[in-house]
Design a protein that fits this description.
This protein is α+β, with helices and mostly antiparallel strands and 527 residues long. It has 3 domains: 2-26 and 35-144 and 422-526, GroEL-like equatorial domain (GROEL, domain 1, Orthogonal Bundle); 155-198 and 209-215 and 390-421; 219-385, GroEL, CATH 3.50.7. It is 52% helix and 14% strand. It contains 17 helices and 18 strands. It has helices spanning 2-26, 51-56, 63-80, 84-101, 105-125, 151-162, 172-189, 227-232, 278-298, 312-320, 331-341, 351-355, 398-420, 430-440, 449-474, 480-494, 500-526, and strands at residues 35-39, 43-47, 132-133, 139-140, 144-145, 199-206, 214-216, 219-221, 235-236, 239-243, 303-306, 324-326, 361-363, 366-372, 375-381, 388-395, 423-426, 497-499. The strands form 6 sheets. It has a 4-stranded antiparallel β-sheet. Strands 12-11-10-13 form a 4-stranded mixed β-sheet. Strands 5-17-18 form a 3-stranded antiparallel β-sheet. A hairpin with a 3-residue loop joins strand 1 and strand 2 (43-47). It is elongated, with a radius of gyration of 28 Å. It starts with a helix and ends with a helix. One of its GO terms (biological process) is chaperone-mediated protein complex assembly.
Length: 527
């Protein structure tokens, strides 16, 4: 039993070291650890260090390592699209420090409390009034407002996300073109209402070089088009209704209803009082959808855009009435299409929805088919005041496109987060060095064993931040002031900015994950 437990702890330690090594080796523009992917049409290509995809490919066996990825990497990637490698490197280092430096559950508890206190201190001190002295350079502020009117600052923020992942043979000129295209699309898509998110769609086209990427105010959707719709397009000035539910038979539509309901649908019942058969429900569904088509025709609707499928009978009815059926618009395009039309999508098919369909009728400048290389797409052209943008991203092969599309989506996520907290910091590891210096300034004196434990875990936190800074471009150096100055100069020369909100979130996710996993370990040891 003891041997089995020892083997388990050893396996966990090895996988934690693997996560730490993979994260550190993949950081920065010169990350040495890269994945290789083979493709039948384009040969072998190199995958970049996209954190979520990288750790998914590791196939970790122990729950400890998998939990660390889920607690630190995945939420960071979902919230900001960037910074997952920093979170993984910090979390794995802290967990190893707590495990190796403690001899009892009480030791681990004390080290966890120390980490939580250090995180609270960083949250308080990282404010706009903080200044760092760089010697000859003079005092600089590591945190400043993002200037939304300065194209250079916005491009610098996007470049810090795209450039490190551009291990696809893209030149600096191509990366700069893609960054400027993304920034222009995002700024034009920022809505007047602060409650709405910018609608920036991304359509990929494999074949042309990256320099042919461009943005357009139309919503370009790469979706299959049936022959009926293809024959009826293009349309000029059409009225459109957008559905984010299916226009198909749904036999379970009324399962959640306690009785007949005119708002959410009508419960089908037989004359005997028993629930109706499948045939009766099918007939009711088709009649409801047929009435929906009649209402659309009475409102002079010229096209229907549906996120999901349209029943063949409904599709035929729409075509017979001169309404273009466009189905399977997909979740990533449907909100942009609705915003382009200037209306909210219809979310439920019911008697109540039939009565309110007039409020969901929107207007477009036109709908037409476009041919992008070997791909046919549907272009929804908005009226002049619509806040929608589509980035048509081009790349010479599928592998390059996969990497480029991933980094561009991450950049849009970072820009969206910048609307909530528009504070930026120089890139290239500068902020990590500032955080490290802040932590080191609070190291306790090793007066007793408890203080020594706290000091060791804080030194691990500060040392890992310095290592990360070196990987991001600052260079490894025993002189922290020299490292700070070097990372500042590198970030200034390369035009790199990082989002403070994303950086602090990576540290918070890492510390929280390390504390939670260490506390779980304590519980297991006590049992």
């Amino acid at each position: 039993m003891a041997d089995s437990m020892a083997d388990s702890f050893e396996t966990e330690a090895k996988e934690l070291q693997l996560v730490h090594r993979v994260a550190l080796s993949s950081l920065g523009p010169g990350g040495s650890l890269q994945g290789v992917q083979a493709n039948a049409s384009t040969g072998v290509g190199v995958l970049s260090s996209a954190s979520r995809r990288l750790f998914e490919s590791l196939r970790l066996r122990t729950w400890h390592a998998r939990a660390l990825v889920r607690l630190a990497v995945q939420p960071q990637a979902e919230a900001f699209g960037d910074g997952g490698l920093v979170a993984a490197a910090l979390a794995s280092a802290l967990v190893q420090a707590v495990r190796s430096g403690s001899e009892s559950a009480l030791d681990r508890f004390r080290m966890v409390r120390c980490l939580e206190g250090a995180l609270d201190s960083l949250r308080r001190r990282m404010n706009r009034d903080l200044a760092v002295d760089l010697g000859e350079v003079g005092p600089v502020r590591p945190v400043r407002d993002l200037d939304w009117s300065d194209m250079g600052s916005l491009v610098a923020l996007v470049r810090a996300v795209v450039a490190p992942k551009a291990k696809i043979g893209a030149t600096d000129q191509e990366v700069d073109h893609i960054c400027r295209t993304l920034v222009r699309a995002f700024v034009l898509a920022v809505p007047h209402s602060t409650l709405r998110r910018p609608e920036v769609s991304l359509v990929t086209v494999v074949g042309p070089p990256a320099m042919e990427s461009y943005s357009t105010s139309s919503v370009v959707a790469d979706i299959p088009v049936c022959r009926e719709a293809e024959r009826m397009l293009p349309l000029s000035g059409p009225s459109v209704v957008v559905f984010n539910t299916s226009l198909d038979v749904d036999l379970g539509r009324n399962d959640g209803c306690a009785g007949p309901s005119q708002e959410f649908g009508v419960t089908v019942e037989a004359r005997s009082g028993l629930r109706g058969s499948g045939e009766a429900a099918m007939g009711f569904e088709l009649r409801l959808l047929s009435r929906m088509v009649a209402v659309l025709a009475s409102e002079n609707v010229a096209a229907v855009a549906c996120q999901k499928t349209i029943h063949p009978f409904v599709k035929q009815e729409l075509a017979l009435r001169g309404i273009v059926p466009i189905e399977r618009v997909s979740l990533r395009h449907i909100d942009a299409v609705a915003s382009c039309c200037g209306v909210d999508p219809v979310s439920v098919i019911s008697e109540g929805a039939l009565r309110s369909i007039r409020s969901h009728v929107g207007k477009l400048e036109g709908i037409h088919l476009r041919r992008l290389c070997r791909k046919t797409v549907v272009s929804f052209e908005p009226l002049a005041d619509a806040k929608t943008q589509t980035v048509v991203l081009t790349a010479p092969n599928e592998i390059a496109m996969g990497e480029l599309a991933h980094s561009c989506r991450s950049a849009v996520a970072v820009l969206t987060s910048a609307l909530q907290s528009p504070y930026v910091t120089p890139g290239a590891g500068f902020f990590e060095m500032v955080l490290s210096s802040t932590v080191r300034s609070q190291l306790p004196s090793p007066t007793d064993r408890g203080r020594r434990l706290e000091r060791s875990v804080l030194e691990s936190l500060a040392g890992t931040m310095e290592t990360i800074a070196g990987k991001l471009g600052g260079g490894d150096s025993g002189d922290r002031e020299a490292s700070l100055r070097r990372s500042w100069e590198f970030a200034t020369r390369r035009g790199l900015l990082d989002l403070v909100m994303s950086k602090l979130a990576a540290v918070e996710y890492a510390v929280d994950a390390a504390c939670n996993l260490s506390q779980v370990d304590c519980t297991l040891v006590c049992q």
